[in-house]
């Protein structure tokens, strides 16, 4: 079965760290594609922050 999992930056957790932890649990042949997007978010204070989104498309092995 083909699955997708999305990782989005929050104020305290970065998408890259979580995506790498997830990918470490998969076999190489399970990964189909990885898509990355980045945007700039402006807070009410006027400060800007980069936010990232990572989408992992992978094959889920059938349970036996």
Automatic annotation (TrEMBL):
Pfam families the record matches: Spore_Cse60
Domain of life per record: Bacteria
Protein name, as recorded: Sporulation protein Cse60
Source lineage: Bacteria, Bacillati, Bacillota, Bacilli, Bacillales
